[in-house]
Design goal:
There is one protein chain. This protein has 3 helices and 11 strands. Strand 3 and strand 4 form a beta hairpin. Strands 1, 2, 3, 4, 5, 6, 7, 8 and 11 form a 9-stranded antiparallel beta sheet that branches. The protein has a two-stranded antiparallel ribbon with strand order 9-10. The protein has 182 residues and is mainly β.
C-alpha cells in the first residue's frame, strides 16, 4: 500500500497544512508544494501569515493531500504527521518548487527573505497514512478509515509484530498501525 504515497505526492500540487497557535487554536490552509521525497516537502509562505506564525510557535503539523476533483466514492488521500520550519537549504527547495511551476511563474532568490516577502519552509514527515474507503473489500471497515503505511525497508522482520497506536498487535503486511476513523 506504500505505493500510494509517492504517487499522490507526485500527482498533487497542493497540500492542506494544519497548524495550531500557542493556545491550540487550529488553522488549515492550502499550500502549493514540492516533494523532495516521501519524507520531506517544501513550500514558500509569507513569514507573517497565520500558518507560518503558528509553525514558529508549534512546529508539529498535520498535512492532507488529496484530489478535490475525484468522483464521489473514488477519493484517495494521504495524511502526514510532520515537523515544519524554515528550510535549511532554500536554494535547493526553490529549485524543486520551480520545477513544478509553469514557465514564467518561477520564483527567484529575490522573492525570498530578507529582501523578498517569502520564506521557504519544509516539513519532515514522521508518519504516513492513507485513506481506506468505507466498504473496501480488503478491510473490515464500514466507514472511511486511515491506515498507517511504511516502506518495505522500514518494516520489522515478519516474525516481529507491530504494536499500533492503540496497543493492538498488527501484522506487517504494509501497514504499521491501526485503522483510524478518517
Amino acid at each position: 500500500m506504500w505505493e500510494v504515497v509517492p504517487r499522490l505526492l507526485g500527482e498533487s500540487r497542493y497540500l492542506v497544512l494544519a497548524t495550531a497557535d500557542r493556545q491550540g487554536r487550529p488553522w488549515a490552509t492550502p499550500v502549493f508544494f514540492a516533494a523532495r521525497d516521501e519524507d520531506r516537502l517544501v513550500w514558500v509562505s509569507a513569514p507573517d501569515s497565520r500558518h507560518s506564525r503558528n509553525i514558529a510557535e508549534r512546529p508539529d503539523v498535520a498535512i492532507t493531500i488529496f484530489d478535490s476533483q475525484a468522483p464521489i466514492g473514488g477519493a484517495e488521500a494521504l495524511y502526514l504527521e510532520a515537523t515544519a520550519g524554515p528550510a535549511d537549504d532554500p536554494a535547493a527547495a526553490l529549485t524543486m518548487l520551480n520545477a513544478r511551476l509553469p514557465p514564467g511563474k518561477e520564483l527567484s532568490g529575490d522573492d525570498l527573505a530578507p529582501s523578498g516577502p517569502l520564506l521557504v519552509y519544509h516539513a519532515d514527515v514522521r508518519r504516513h497514512f492513507i485513506l481506506i474507503r468505507g466498504g473496501d473489500p480488503r478491510f473490515d471497515n464500514v466507514t472511511d478509515a486511515r491506515l498507517r503505511v511504511t516502506r518495505a525497508q522500514d518494516r520489522p522482520p515478519m516474525d516481529e509484530p507491530i504494536r499500533s497506536l492503540d496497543g493492538h498487535m498488527n501484522d506487517n503486511s504494509g501497514s504499521a498501525g491501526p485503522k483510524e476513523q478518517a
